[in-house]
Amino acid sequence: MTLLLKADRVTKKFGGLTAVNRVDFEIEKGMIAGLIGPNGAGKTTFFNNITGLYTPTEGQIYFDGQVITGLKPHLIQKRGISRTFQNIRLFGQLSALENVLVGEHVRLHGSILEAFFRPPRVMAEEKMARERALDVLDFVGLGRKIADQAARNLPYGSQRRLEIARALASDPKLLLLDEPTAGMNPQEKRELTDLVRHVRDNMGVTVLLIEHDMKVVMGISDRVTVLDHGEKIAEGLPQVVQKNPQVIEAYLGTGAAAEGA
Amino acid sequence: MNDIVATLGLIGLSNGSVIALNAIALTLIYAAARTLNLAHGDVFALCSVMTMTILRAALWDVVATPLDLVVWCAIAGLATVVFGMLLSALIEALGFRPFRGGSRLAPIIATLGLSFALYQVSLIWAHALPTYSTGDHRSVPGLPEVPIVGVPAILPAIDVLHALGINSVGSFQLRDLVLIGVAVLVALAAQVMLKRTRIGRAIRACAQDPIAAQMVGVNHNGTIRAAFAIGGLLAGIGAFTFTVAKEMPVGSHGAESGLMAFTAAILGGIGNPIGALLASLLLGVFSAMTTYFLDAHWTPVFIYLLLVGLLMWRPTGLTAEDRGGDLNSISNEIVVLDRRSLLRRQPKLLLLVLLVALIAFPALAEAEPYRLPVANSFLIWIILTLGLTIVVGMSGVLDIGFAANFALGGYVSAYLTAPAMAWRAGFLPGIPDAVFVMALAALITGVVGVIRGLATSRMRADYLAISTLALGLVGHDLIKYLSGVGGISAIPAPRVLGQPIASPLAQYAILGVIVTVIVLAAIRLQNSRAGRALAAIREDEHAAAAFGVNIVTYKTAAFFIGSAIAGLAGGLYASVTSYVDPELAGFHISVMALAMACIGGAGSAAGAVIGALAILLIDRVAIPTVGRLVENSLYAGFSIRELNYLVFGMALYLSLLSWRRQASGVEGKADHEPWDPDQMLTVRWWTGLPGRLAGAFNHLGLSLAHAGHRTRAFLDRNVFDEGDGA
After folding, report:
1. Which chain B residue lies closest to A150 (C-alpha atoms)?
2. Do residue B535 and residue A166 have CB atoms under 8 angstroms apart?
3. What is the pLDDT at residue B343?
4. Do A91 and B544 touch (CB under 8 A)?
5. Which residue in chain B has the smallest CA separation from A103?
6. pTM of the entire predicted model
7. Which residues, 6+ apart, have CB-to-CB distance to B346 below 8 Å?
8. Closest approach of chain A CAs to the CA of B93, in angstroms?
9. Range B11-30 average pLDDT
10. Do the Cβ atoms of B33 and B223 come closer than 8 Å?
11. How many contacts, defined by CB atoms under 8 Å, are there between A and B?
12. CA-CA distance, A150 to A155, in Å (whole number)?
């Protein structure tokens, strides 16, 4: 297996607060990796460092063998990293289809001038883009019927799926999911877990997900990394990590760890 | 020299006190409501007219005893203060409460509309007061009347410096001392109120974190209402003092004087009355110095640029009290953006109807030739509105100073073609071709628009609105002082390939083609990769960036295209009407364009056309027609045409009110605002223009929407309020 993403001692400080502290991290192609940790452990900050919303204070991030540290978000997206957001951030007033089409943005080429003059090449590209977007809606299980509905009017679960569809539309190599099952009931969680597996198996996309629900993350991940107070405290197979006393302590407090041991 | 500086300093302190009387109230209101009240200056101005009305009625041309003076001053003061409190509470109810929990921008635009309406009311009110007293002329027996100007003198004219035995070239009157004294007292009182009283603590708590404040039992709505009432009280005190001391009412338009006061409030730190006072005094002295050593004209330019600089430098506020610097809060908040309603429903039918009307109009108008020039000005307005629509609807940057672009285009055209511009002769023989002139007008305006846009585009929404407002005023002032108040006249009709296009019909045809092309281009843009990228930026800038949209490129393009279209409109205006003056950059043009863009649904090309037509028909056809009918039956000297400001102001306000659902939906999550009751009621019966107009009129009780609104208000009061006090 080849290395897809590598974080080398990534540190992010906000003033005096160190949100992420010297985290080393690797993902191999084709794997589903889980990133867990209690609230405030620095998981989303770590995500934001990878996607370029933040620039790491120290350390390097390599993607597909190249340094991406400090690149602008749209350039990192172009390299093949796509994401969803913890609190859904769809383009609410745009239709579901348009949301997916924005996801395809980096794959398309029509410029503003071409929007006015509509050369045949751009028209053909637009037509293909729409077809593909509809296919992606099908793929994530939303179907084509909701294509013209405004994103903000979709039910919660569908909005989560639409976020994944939008992220997939850019044909990423790596998909970052930030708490994809937050606020879902067990049934919906199972369906979403299946979707994530489906994405990896049928589209060949490597997945890194932040997740709170232990059951979800342990069931789906090939490898789990645990952050606490910005530091990596454990890493490995889900079953092993689950039994790590430090992890239990981080989640449940010292007393629980002692009891468990 | 020292004498001059000292005198200027004293005058500056006096002028600064006037700013402070506004700024202290503004800073309190801003702290509680967390956004700017642009109508506060007009509350101040109306209070001042109130004082004048009472004092004139009681004391004009009357030999009053000191007791009379004291009693009447007390009555006038009390009435003014009560009036100010009621008016300020009314502003809160109309301009803030309906938008609570939504965008911080909405109240700014709403109060901008209300400000125009109130400005008009104060003009009408002042106009309605008797201008001549009855009886004999005082010094020329036989002449029947004495003109009434200003307010009767109450404070004795004592030169303080002179009385103290200091020799000085300037004068420092007792009235100046009174102004400074009252400003200091008001600042101290406000400070004590904020720090030592229950309501003061509640205001500060709401400024810090409205949700947490509610959790510990602070009534958010009640606190905001109280802050407005206190602001109104301070406006009453300030306006009374100003009117008595200066012996005249406040004359300026409140949104402009409010901007000056807001500069002071920001400089002093939001929610800090003493800071506001000191900053105001500083601004006052600074203004006095620049006025004396440079030129009075440059003072507002400096102040407004200072304001924009402050907002750029500290886009999340100068004090810790106003937090929100985290990543999430820098989202695009925009007011009106329901772009699909018109275009998605029946764009083709609607556009076809418009196109047929455009082509058929000259035939219909043939009988009355004066109609074509009017139609030409309509078309120019439509072009301007389309430009604004592109900036607002596509980049999400709401520009309240857009008229500066219009004027710039007009002046470029004037400088290139007017005979008075002798400098041109050296390198541009003859009158340049109109295509070249218009292209240059569009290009220059577009570039300036990009600079303006990029300078402000990183700001949070409310600061952005204030900055564009300030930059618009800067544009107006710059044009006025660089090119002259009188404007440029005798601009020749456009020439293409040596042929002058002077006939209204030919001009109409060309303008019609330009409008059609712009509308088609805008629609094509909307349904393209670039259009989607712009829409995504407008909705959520960070999410858009995460999907590979280059924010800077697209925003720059939107600014350029929108501004260039406005510049083109200005250039066309200059050569079609043959005259430009600085008022093209005026505030009322910006607001009129904004109202046009809002009425039709910003972001929709067809909406821009409809909105522009609706406002123009009211302004140019309905009002003059009604005016002719009633003008003579009303009292003499009053023209109903003067209702313009009232119409724009209310149109802007009402269209905003009808959009608040969309307005509040976009970013409630981003800014830690309290949850939005509006979102709970997903009644969507006003998508589409007819429904939207119904929404706009619902406060006038003209439609079924009225019932819906009352239901909502009832729910607000009885259901949702409970959360506040819990």
Report:
1. B340
2. no
3. 38
4. yes
5. B547
6. 0.74
7. none
8. 28
9. 87
10. no
11. 111
12. 11
Kindly state whether residues B586 and B503 are assigned to the same domain. Answer: yes
**pLDDT of amino acid A163:** 93
Q: Which of A76, A91, A152, A175 to mutate to test the interface with B (most CBs of B within 10 A)?
A: A91
Distance from CA of A63 to the nearest CA of B (A): 16
For residue A190, is it within any domain?
Answer: yes
What is this model's ipTM? Answer: 0.83
| Same domain as A186, residue A137 | no
Mean pLDDT of B656-661: 58
Structure confidence by residue, pLDDT tens digits, B226-284: 889 999 999 999 989 888 888 777 766 776 777 778 888 877 777 788 888 988 888 88
Residue A137 lies in a domain: yes
How many separate domains does chain B show?
2
Return the structure tokens found at A184: 């879902």
Same structural domain, B348 and B310? no
User: Is B530 within 8 Å of A112 when comparing Cβ atoms?
Assistant: yes
Instruction: Out of A106, A115, A152, name the one closest to residue B665 (CB).
Output: A152
Structure-token match 């410096």, residue found: B161
Is A98's CB within 8 Å of B529's CB? no
Is B96 among the domain residues?
yes
Residue B484 has pLDDT above 70, yes or no: yes
Shortest CB distance from B529 goes to which of A93, A110, A116? A110
| Structural domain contains residue A87 | no
Domain span at residue B362 reads 342-681
Coil, helix or strand at residue A7: strand
- Per the listing, tokens 């200056």 go with B41
Q: Which residue of B has its CA nearest to A78?
A: B548
pLDDT at B424: 64
User: For B603-641, what is each residue's pLDDT tens digit?
Assistant: 677 778 888 888 788 777 776 677 666 655 554 444 555
Nearest to B546 among A73, A101, A129 (CB): A73
pLDDT band at B132 (very low <50, low <70, confident <90, very high): low
Residues in chain A with CB shorter than 8 Å from the CB of B450 are none
Residue A48: list chain B partners with CB under 8 A. 327
- Of B532, B550, B665, nearest to A98 by CB-CB distance is B532
User: Distance between CA atoms of B358 and B367, rounded to whole angstroms?
Assistant: 17
Q: Average of pLDDT values for B541-566?
A: 88
User: Which CATH number goes with the domain that contains B667?
Assistant: 1.10.3470
Provide the number of structural domains found in chain A.
2
* Burial of B371 from C-beta contacts in 10 A (0-12 / 13-18 / 19+): middle
For the cut 50, the answer to whether the pLDDT of residue A99 exceeds it is: yes
Q: Would you call A91 and B557 a contact, using CB atoms and an 8 Å cutoff?
A: no
Q: What angle do CA B405, B565, B689 make, to 5 degrees?
A: 105
Set of chain A residues whose Cβ sits within 8 Å of the Cβ of B549: 74, 102, 105
Same domain flag for A29 and A39: yes
- Using an 8 Å Cβ cutoff, are B607 and B601 in contact? yes
**Residues A56 and A179 reside in one and the same domain:** yes
3-state helix, strand, coil in chain B (%, to 5): 75, 0, 25
Check residue B585 and give its pLDDT.
87
Number of residues in chain A: 261
Minimal Cα distance from A172: which residue of B? B547
3-state DSSP helix/strand/coil percent for chain A, to nearest 5? Answer: 45, 25, 30
- Picking from B547, B550, B669, the nearest residue to A166 by CB comes out as B547
Same domain? B376 vs B320? no
Distance (Å) from the alpha carbon of A23 to chain B's nearest alpha carbon? 22
From the list B205, B231, B225, the residue with the least C-alpha distance to B217 is B205
- State yes or no: pLDDT of B519 exceeds 50: yes
Residue B236 lies in a domain: yes
Residue A88 resides in a domain: no
- The domain of A116 spans 95-171
Q: Are residues A59 and A118 in the same domain?
A: no
Indicate whether A73 and A200 sit together in one domain: yes
* A4-43 tens-digit pLDDT: 999 999 999 887 888 899 999 999 999 999 998 888 888 8
User: Is position B717 within any domain?
Assistant: no
Inspect the interface and report whether the beta carbons of B539 and A93 lie closer than 8 Å.
yes
Predicted confidence at residue B669, as pLDDT, reads 33
B695 occurs within a structural domain: no
Quick one: closest CA in A to B540, which residue? A91
Query: Are residues B312 and B443 part of one domain?
Result: no
The distance of Cα B153 from the centroid of its chain, to the nearest Å, equals 33
CA nearest to B669 within chain A: A87
The reply to whether B395 and B486 lie within a common domain is yes
